[in-house]
Write a structure and sequence with these properties.
29% strand, RnfH_sf, UPF0125 protein MIZ03_0875
């Protein structure tokens, strides 16, 4: 079955289609895609993965046509970027 694997950095993105056997897992698709050779700093032991925007485990089974996404670690606090503060006493 055909699935895709995607990962993006601000300066570089990759979307790879890959053929995997029926009953393949997210991990199987990532390994078959070779994306860890394209992005050697990927660390699947710490980075989250998903399918169509929903977090899943590396051992989740895939269905034909699904898009596996490897998410970058958050490098900034979204609350600070929005100007939110922790003081809710207003």
């Amino acid at each position: 079955m055909k699935v895709s694997v995607t990962y993006a950095l601000p300066e570089r993105q990759s979307w790879l289609e890959v053929e995997v056997p029926e009953q393949a897992t997210v991990r199987d698709a990532i390994e078959a895609s070779g994306i860890t050779r394209v992005f050697p700093t990927l660390d699947l032991s710490t980075q989250k993965v998903g399918v169509f925007g929903k977090l899943v485990a590396l051992e989740a089974r895939l269905e034909p046509g699904q898009r596996v996404e490897i998410y970058r670690p958050i490098t900034a606090d979204p609350k600070l970027l929005r100007g939110d503060d922790d003081d809710d006493s207003d």
